[in-house]
């Protein structure tokens, strides 16, 4: 029948008809698998972390506006200023990701030691390496690239001392 999808009523009717002849009807389940849910949760977590990271980098840039004015006055190119922002974003992203992963695993080990859920600590035998690598290296790389791209131009008021 190809990719034809059946309604719940059709499946129920087929199961009822098959049960009279002691047969079973199997139907495809559209509920996502555990790995699909983990992948979406990882992506959602990375997006939230990147948002928080963007706010942190913005705060750091606003606090260091005097230093950036000094860099511009001494002849530092926009490339240098962009690179500083990218390195700041990448370093903060990596540090946050590393602390988050280590903290998460320490908390999970502590919880599983007192719990026999899914086999206790042995449940950590299947580590999601791909997701962890995306969190540890992908997120900081994205943060650095976005930081470098968005720090391209300084506002015109940067050259003047703010009035307090």
Brief overview:
This protein is mainly alpha-helical and 164 residues long.
How do the strands and helices of this protein lay out in sequence?
Blueprint: H1 8-20, H2 34-63, H3 65-73, H4 78-113, H5 129-150
Helix pairs in contact: 2-4, 2-5, 4-5
Describe this protein with a few key phrases.
single chain, 164 residues, mainly alpha, 2 domains, 5 helices, 67% helix, 0% strand
Q: How would you characterize the largest beta sheet? A: none
Q: Mean of the pLDDT scores?
A: 83
How many helical stretches? 5
Coarse structural class = mainly alpha
How many runs of DSSP E, i.e. beta strands? Answer: 0
Secondary-structure element order, as H and E? HHHHH
How far is the first residue's CA from the last residue's CA?
Answer: 75 Å
Helix content: 55-70%
Low-confidence stretches: none
Rg from C-alpha positions?
26 Å
Number of discrete domains: 2
Percentage of residues in DSSP E strands: under 5%
Walk me through the structure.
With 164 residues, the chain is an all-alpha fold. It folds into two domains: 1-30, no CATH class; 34-153, no CATH class. It is 67% helix and 0% strand. It contains five helices and no strands. The longest helix is centred in the middle third of the chain and has 36 residues, at 78-113. The chain is elongated, with a radius of gyration of 26 Å.
